[in-house]
Input
Amino acid sequence: MMCADLTQSMGRKCTALAALLLLATGSAAAAPVVKTEHVQADLTAERTSVRPGEPAPVGLRLRMTEHWHTYWKNPGDSGLPTRIKWELPQGWKAGEIQWPYPKPLPVGPLMNYGYEDEVVLLTDITPPASAKPGTYPVKAKAEWLVCKDICIPEKGELDLDLVVGTGEPAVNPRYISHFERTRATLPAEAPGWKFESALQGGKLVVRMLPPAGATAPKAITFFPEREQVVEPAAPPKLTREGNAARIEMKLADPPPTGVTVVKGVAVSDDGWPGIARKAIQVEAPVSGSIAPAAAGTTKSSGGGVATSTAAALFFALVGGMLLNLMPCVFPVLGIKVLGFVQHAHGEARALRIQGWAFFAGTVISFLLLAGIMLALRAGGAQLGWGFQLQSPGVVMLLAALFFVLALNLSGVFEWGAFAQSMTAKLSARGRYADAFLSGVVASVVATPCTAPFMGAAVGFTLTQDAALALAVFAMLGIGMALPVLALSHFPALMRRLPRPGPWMETFKQVLAFPLYATVAWLAWVLGAQAGNDAVLALLAGLVLVAMGAWMFGRWEHAEKPWRAAVAAILTGTGLVVAWPGTLDAPAPGIPTARAGELQWEEWSPERVAQLNAQGKAVFVDFTAAWCVTCQVNKRIALHNDAVVREFGVRGVVPLRADWTRQDPRITAALSALGRNAVPVYALYIPGESAPRLLPEVLTPTLVIAELAQVQPAKSATAAITPADRTFK
Amino acid sequence: MTRLLALAIASAFSAAAFANASVGKPAPNFTVTDLDGKPAKLEDYKGKTVVLEWTNFGCPFVQKHYKSGNMQALQKKYGADVVWLAVNSTNKSAWDWTEPTKISKQLKDFGAAPARYLVDEPGKVGMAYGAKTTPHMFIIDGTGKVVYNGAIDSIRSSDVDDVKKATNYVAVALDELKAGKAVSTASTTPYGCTVKYR
Output
């Protein structure tokens, strides 16, 4: 072979010419194949004839030996792009090479962009309008660098006869499939997409904003067209900003100068919404800087989408404070306040320290939970706030925890966090530890509740780096702990509360009932997740736990050494019995609607798009069985007669997205709305670019007011044509 | 999850190990052995202009500049003013790894005249400088700063005929340095074969 051994043949140029092999000649569009050491090259035409003045695609096909590659127009750290010099008859013109999207080809610590196995480089060849019918020779002098461990520059002169005719050009059956395959790998125009870029902090930042209703794909690789813009081998960072995507790549060193627009190709193996290709063209004008902006692309009519860091932190603070009023937290908080009342007339300093201990317990717990969520999410899990409750095991443990707390409040036994703070006998240090623990418990029980303002703040964290996300969660914790902290610092406030007395014992026992109710609700959640048997197991387990608690309380003063041991064994056994094994219960379906209720349909993004295309407005209820706020909204606002009537009048289709168990599609949809927790209520009105978001806490009036934005059913259908479709 | 973590760690390492001696920065010091097994240090040439030429005779792009006599001519022309160090960072298991004894012969056959030919077998020097291709050229001035980083010339091909037509960036830079001027074209995109690191 010509190119046998470069090291030895040193002085010889490796040309393919001599190795030219004529395989098929004579017929138009079937050209001789040039064989080199590592590549078989030929020219192919898509059609059997060409019309004067009309461009005809011609392909340079390079078939590489296995594991050898040729290069894209930006070859990366090394290599050279393939070049074609056309020799055409007088008056004929050749266009630019249309490059298929490349593949990253790592070479040790370096990175190349190119093609393996086979690539077809298309070029439009245009005969002049005056061309007479006949056969014309077309010649391409092609040069390519083909590499594996080593690189061999090769070249070939390729011939093709193009037939000019005036009739309708027929498809060349021999090559049509590879032309079609190649077209699928050409980067497509991306109508409706917006791109921006910035060179900042040693990084190239490209932001890709999809058209309304669409979401950027999960995994995107960006290949800049120009060399020396980025460090090709440095791993890129992809983050989501609502439904947009943000890509950061290390800038080349030295950084490029004079870049006013960053051009390139973005590739997603999952494809692009509404575009039937894996790659799209990107042209991103360079601006001064791109702040890691918020998910401000959705319109919100209430609750507020946090659009800036300050706003997110503020919403988190307010949301945290409101958490105290949620049914899951209130009893715990009530007990804490009781403890303070007890000491309100005591030592002010000790009280303050307790306040701070509670504060620390709360904030640390929030940070811990958020840290776990962020870590899991960084690992690729599709999780949102409240994710803990998507696991039946956690639901069961919470039910047991609430049950034990309730038993304690009922006076079955006198031990544990809440009793301690009310006994003055306890050492100061014990009381601080207890206050800290109360903070922890309050945080844990708060997680099923999304308070108003919290959704926007938590959604904001989706798009942020870990530090800022943690700051938002810390703010939630601070907000939740703030009222207690305030009370501890201003005992004057507490003097307005009744003086300590027997009423406190009564009040404490009364507070047990919201907790029992919470247990009942958690049992229902578990039933929805893991089926009826899991509920039986839970209740049986709780009976054992109750026995343990009772035994512990009954012989409280007996100082019997076995008391604690037996109680622990019973409780442990109870937990084992209650543990919901592997769950394979069917996902909770949509229950059949009763008369006078909304006819919920199961949600899917396709269904939303389909209904919108038909000109129907869609109301989506993102909900979960474990979300208390969701249940309250359902009872109060969505099952309200007037609301149901309004749905009917306006022809709004209600869809329900049930997040009781993990569902990546719902997590993705939430994140597209800039949210990461339920409830979320979204109203998709045909012809509007973004869905309207309703606040987290609904009232019938509010829902009716939102629905009134929709044109009544009849006229809506008439006014919307398929061209108005905004959702894909 | 584990795979992702491993990938992240791996990429962090490779990114950390593969540095870049960009223009204006102090040139990373190094100690390697030359063809005769003698240690060579950058420090030894303090106060002198040093040219680093990443090379590998197995590479067609390197051959372009040796077959045309281009590289040898530069080595001889500037040899009196600068210390010209050829560096080979090819790893031993690569197809075109060549034993030092053979390289000595090749150098002689070509009439090449680098001051020394450095065998950077584990690729440490190459990684510290961010040498990506053969050839890839660096110029270090008397104060130890990198003043040129990039290609040998302006035409990115393996065609011998292009040598005459191209602007030789290294020659331009060395002339400017000699005249006491700043290097006008200090950073370019190197072209050639990939350096075969381990």
In short: The longest strand of chain A covers residues 134-147. Chain A has four domains: 6-184, 194-285, 309-578, 601-724. Chain A touches chain B through 34 residues (CB under 8 Å). Chain A has a mean pLDDT of 78.
